[in-house]
Amino acid sequence: MSTPNCPSCGAPTGAQSTECKYCGEKLTAAQPHYQANPNFSNPPQYQQPASNYSNPTQPAYGAPAQYNRKSKVAAGLLGIFLGGLGIHKFYLGRIWWGIAYILFCWTYIPAIVGFIEGIVYLASNEEKFQMKYRRK
What we know:
Order of helices and strands: HHHHH
Number of helices: 5
Radius of gyration: 25 Å
Distance between the termini: 34 Å
Number of strands: 0
Helix content: 25-40%
Number of domains: 2
Largest sheet: none
């Protein structure tokens, strides 16, 4: 016996579920369907699962994409003012780069690179910035 699927998004649901946990669609109790003739004249119709290839920003089964948007202004200002300590790298989720900046902060090279990166962040396109630095 297979698990029931949501009629709206096709996501698998529990047998006792009353609501789809992905799209929030109300689920009705499935009524057993019996045919008088055991020989099926029509083949069963199956719903195709949602594909990631049609929309790469939308995950499978129609669940809304949940991204943590990062502010390019905040990243730019952190890079300019606290770039020597790598705070902007920690903010953007690049933990290992942030640690490298802290380890080499005594050379002032991370401060120069952080200043330049801060200017690049501020001058970059918002859409390209979000595509590069947003995290799930």
